[in-house]
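re: that chain from earlier
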Amino acid sequence: MRNIKIVLEYDGSRYAGWQVQPSRPTIQGTLARALGELTGADTKVTGASRTDAGVHAVAQVASFTTAASIPLRGIMRGLNSILPGDIAVREVQEVPPGFDARRDAKSKTYLYRVFNRDHPTPLNRFYSWSVFYPLDISLMQQGALLMVGKKDFSSFRAAGCGARHPVREILSFDVEGRDDGFVEFTVRGTAFLRHMVRIMVGTLVTLGRGKISLEDVKNLVEARDRTRAPLTAPPQGLFLMEVEY
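^ sequence. v structure.
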């Protein structure tokens, strides 16, 4: 059996997330069906990140095993001819038998985009969160630094999260205001809890609006209590940008 690693780009707008769900379209399910059509065999696909419904990816990594002798270039071309236009395979590589896209990931980088103007952005409505109130970029940058490090992130963990423990390590968290009205939140960590990035961004936006203080953010991190977090940012502004091994 060959072990194959692929890098995917997708628009998650019309999908119920990565993971297969009964009677709902998912990235994993769509990819598995395409692989079955290409190879003629049922294929289990493992993804590096279980992105939520409506979340996008620039570089999701997945792996699968196959007995098919199709060349790597043929796998990429074949999948891209079968997959719908909102999912594409960017890279294909044969990897050692023990490689697992999820288990072997060392870090992941996510980008969240906020459009901060007094009007919405119709062309980016599926790829950003429109926030109509002025945001203090400097204050949000200071708040983001309070979330960097190895901590118990129970306050930023969604109900139903299946992780065995809430301790995660955030390696960097940057907030940048752009001239075109977008504010970009870029967070890199070893692993993430369910909705963790969206809850962190929602907290920072609440801070940037002046609704809470830096001391409130510090207390929220230390509280380890999800009911204390202000809000969860909507999914459409979130992108999985990179997975490192």
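The helical segments are 27-39, 72-82, 137-145, 196-208, 214-223.
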